[in-house]
Amino acid sequence: MASLAEIRAKLAQQDNRNNREGGGDNTIYPHWNIPEGTSARVRFLPDKDDKNTFFWVERAMINLPFAGVKGQADSKPVTVQVPCVEMWGMACPILAEVRTWFKDPTLEEMGRKYWKKKSYLFQGFVRDNPLKDDKVPENPIRRFIISPQIFNLVKDALTDLDLENLPTEYEDGLDFIVTKTSKGGYADYNTSKWARKESALTTEELEAIEKFGLYDLKDFLPKKPAESDLKVLKEMFEASVDGQAYDQERWGNYYRPRGLAAPSSGSAQSSDDSAKASKPSPAKVVSKPAPVVNEDIDDEIPFDTGVDSGTMVASTPVETKSEGTGGRRAEEILAMIRNRQKKD
């Protein structure tokens, strides 16, 4: 039997994990929650990693929707986010298939559904905060998950020859003003911009950097999949296209919905025994229609992105298993994938 100290330690560990999953430390600033017609003024800071040329890192994730969880009665549909390995300069087994779909106009909608979703991780201070209920953490250096729409505005200004200093300079830097409006029923940030005048960090901000230090932004990217994990990703992708339920025993030690435990020891992890070698951190579920950002690995993106276009698009659900055209389309796609595998 466990000792009282061991029981207390276990309970404390569970409490800490629950706090992280609930966004307890509030490190990420949810700029997408600011009221329409308001602005948040932020000051970006450099990356701790001095090998990073930029003051941000790019992240690319792929949504894999499943009909539910296998073996669970009345299970609701879940969406598991998995990393697109193009982040590491690797060939993505999912996008290798999806790219071919855009050659057929009837498959474009499916292609967008499974295309990588880009976002960009920044860090900095929130200097003007319109969120009245925002709880500033002890460490005021926040992290930002920035959409391609805002990122393009950030990036384009950096090529302006009139810009003399880096915006992240402590003495002569620039604030960035995130402004939220709406267009076509969706949030629009195209009026966001850099401040016109330079400003120095305050004494309090400099003391926070000294006390807490900067984040190494790459630490918040998903774990790089091993070669064996690529087979799991492809297997999950094909099952998703086929409209199957998420299989905890096959994939639970690799990528799984939040709240779902890993399978018990000895359970099968994949149809391919060689896929047992590596166990990346679990990906999170994207809640629909009200996505929530998690503090654990920050995999969830509270916005939808276009196909490498940097524009915001509406997320249109596509039935992958039905008696209508959606089911037939999924079957046709799976047939294409399997025929290509035979040829290879």
List keywords for this structure.
344 residues; alpha+beta; Replication Fork Single-Stranded DNA Binding Protein; 7-stranded antiparallel beta sheet; two-stranded antiparallel sheet; 8 helices; globular
Q: Could you characterize what this model shows?
A:
The structure is a single chain. By secondary structure, the chain is α+β, with helices and mostly antiparallel strands. The protein has one domain (26-343): Replication Fork Single-Stranded Dna Binding Protein (Replication Fork Single-Stranded DNA Binding Protein), CATH 3.90.198. 27% of the residues lie in helices and 15% in strands. It has 8 helices and 9 strands. Strands 1, 2, 3, 4, 5, 6 and 9 form a 7-stranded antiparallel sheet that branches. A two-stranded antiparallel sheet has the order 7-8. Strand 7 and strand 8 form a beta hairpin. The longest helix has 19 residues, at 325-343. The protein starts with a helix and ends with a helix.
The number of distinct helices, counting runs of at least 4 residues, comes to 8
CATH topology: Replication Fork Single-Stranded DNA Binding Protein
**Secondary structure category:** alpha+beta
Coarse shape: globular
Number of domains: 1
